[in-house]
Amino acid sequence: MAQHEQDREDLMREAVALPMRTELACADFDSLITIGFRANLGMSIFIGQDPVYHFDAEGRLRRAFVDGFLYRSQHATLARLQRDRTLTQTLLLRTDLNMESLEVFRGQMRESLDSLLRNLAPGKFRTVRRIPDAEDLIPQIRATLSRIQNATPWLSIAINRRK
Q: Which tens digit of pLDDT belongs to each residue from 16-67?
């Protein structure tokens, strides 16, 4: 994710942590979609600037950026993190989602990912760019989206804060 919330200039150029990545134009999406894989095969999905989802190699959600909020997996729930900036400091305010909010979040995420999977059918998308240029990631993306849909548990282990 970007250091700051403003729009990214060129996600395909900036996403160096994703050595395999592709940018797609899909029929049912207004924004370009960037999907990439980390070296450990965790997948990241950027639907325009927001939402953004990061998954581990098993298809469990690790982090997200949705509706201007950062989310981090706590294994049993998600922590919603909100930046509160003053002239002298930035605070990160944490709220753990209750079960109802967690299910709403999951439902919205699944709806977006289901729509993306439907849009990966022939004729419904166009590859704009990909890195490496010769690598067709669509079969791997489809398989990983299916793994995400079936992941149990659907949240990754708690993410440790940086030391």
A: 899 999 999 999 999 999 999 999 999 999 999 999 999 999 999 999 999 9
CB 57 within 8 A of CB 44: no
Nearest Cα to 119, choosing from 31, 20, 11? Answer: 31
Q: Are 97 and 105 in contact (CB under 8 A)?
A: yes
In a domain, 4, yes or no: no
Residue 80 Cα distances to 33, 65, 118, angstroms: 23, 9, 29
Q: What are 83-99's pLDDT values in tens digits?
A: 888 889 988 899 999 99
HEC string for 67-122: CCEEEEECCCCEEEEEEEECCCCEEEEEEECCHHHHHHHHHHHHHHHHHHHHHCCC
Tally of CA atoms within 13 A in the half-sphere of 88 that contains its CB: 0
Task: Identify the domain containing residue 131 by its residue range.
Answer: 11-150
Amino acid letter for position 152: T
**Does residue 162 form part of some domain?**
no
Q: Across residues 116-126, what is the average pLDDT? A: 94
